[in-house]
Specification:
With 142 residues, the chain is α+β, with helices and mostly antiparallel strands. The protein has helices at 12-16, 20-29, 44-50, 60-67, 82-90, 103-107, 122-129; strands spanning 3-10, 33-40, 72-80, 116-118.
Length: 142
């Protein structure tokens, strides 16, 4: 398997509900290494940049409003096939369709309040992560 990095963000509902430690622990138990970690309250401009691919879609305004409603926790994790494995661990966007054992299956309350975001392709990792981190902030091997 190829070692790669991916971007993960615990959304405001996950932070409010005190799920940050549990979610991070799941990734660590899976063998991922945390390369960067930050708590931040996104501005509207940052949220629009993060979700730029959804601009113009009917849910865009609600998404921006939600993700700016409280602090988020952003991280870059590294491991074998990180993008694919992290997405499998997270489960489908709609928590009602996510199987038990996935993060959304265990914690999502609705399609909108689904606790977590993860990059869905290697090409998007740094576009999304750059809202939070510079490449210099990412920890090297340890």
């Amino acid at each position: 398997m190829a070692k790669e990095q991916t971007f993960i963000m615990i959304k405001p509902d996950g932070v409010r509900r005190g799920l940050v430690g549990e979610i991070i622990a799941r990734f660590e138990r899976k063998g991922f290494r945390i390369k960067a970690l930050k708590m931040k309250w996104l501005t509207r401009e940052e949220a629009e940049r993060l979700y730029a691919e959804h601009k113009g879609k009917p849910f865009f305004e609600d998404l921006v409003r939600f993700v700016t409603s409280g602090p988020v926790v952003a991280m870059i994790i590294e491991g074998d096939s990180a993008v694919k494995v992290a997405r499998l661990m997270i489960g489908p966007t709609d928590g009602r369709e996510a199987p038990p054992g996935t993060i959304r299956g265990d914690y999502a309350l609705s399609k909108g309040e689904n606790v977590i975001h993860a990059s869905d392709s290697p090409e998007k990792v740094w576009r999304e992560a750059s809202v939070f981190f510079s490449k210099e902030e990412v920890v090297g091997d340890y």
